[in-house]
Write a structure and sequence with these properties.
This protein has 217 residues and is an alpha+beta fold. The chain is built from 6 helices and 9 strands. Strand 7 (79-81) and strand 8 (89-99) form a beta hairpin.
Length: 217
């Protein structure tokens, strides 16, 4: 009878121990890196828990935030740039990046969404800086590969302050703005029409000579 009375306390004690154990453990897998926080401040390994494994924390007092270890994409909006020859181009580019310093990342931007916004601004500024020093022909030629490397290096230097590394930058395409394309098409059409008119005029002149010769004969 006495054992039955103690049973609820025993079960409660077991559940409490299980609760403490479960909340004392956190797992980091190979795709993640983590920071341990206590009242909002980083404690423990300030470089972050980057190796996969089982780690411990104080229940209810400490919590864990996770960040991606994998390479992340950076999509940007189309950007209009002006090379040194003033022939404006619309550039569509993208990048790839990863978090290398979780503590600095948390202090600078805290989340991937905020990081994407900051990195897009950095990449756009790098595109304007590098492409503004070359001609449009260089941007549209095979030299684009070297330009993308330069853009990546400029963006990488700026992104270090966010605790991230810019791994790659690629230019999908570089075209004339729509209004410039329309003007170019109209100019090409006018040129073709003028060439056609010249050909017709030369043909008519030749025909007149042939008719005149025939009349004389």
């Amino acid at each position: 009878m006495r054992m039955l009375k103690r049973l609820p306390f025993v079960i409660g004690g077991i559940l409490l121990v299980l609760f403490v154990l479960v909340n004392s453990i956190f797992i980091v897998d190979e795709r993640q890196q983590a920071l341990k926080l206590q009242f909002g401040q980083v404690v423990g390994d300030r470089d972050g828990y980057r190796d996969p494994g089982l780690y411990f924390k104080i229940p209810l007092i400490q919590n864990v935030v996770y960040y991606e270890k994998r390479i992340l994409p950076l999509e940007t909006s189309q950007l209009e740039v002006t090379p040194v020859d003033d022939r404006r181009l619309v550039v569509d580019a993208f990048g790839r990046w990863r978090i290398t310093d979780p503590l600095r990342f948390r202090q600078a931007v805290a989340s991937e969404l905020a990081a994407n916004s900051r990195l897009e601004s950095i990449l756009n500024a790098s595109l304007r800086a590098v492409l503004g020093e070359v001609t449009s022909d260089q941007i549209l030629s095979e030299a684009r590969g070297d330009l993308m490397t330069r853009i990546r290096d400029v963006a990488r230097n700026e992104a270090q302050s966010l605790g991230v590394e810019m791994l790659d930058v690629r230019i999908r395409r570089a075209d004339l703005p729509q209004q410039n394309l329309q003007a170019t098409y109209q100019r090409m059409q006018a040129e073709r029409e003028r060439e056609a008119a010249d050909e017709r005029a030369r043909g008519e002149e030749a025909a007149q000579r042939i008719r005149a010769n025939a009349d004389r004969q």
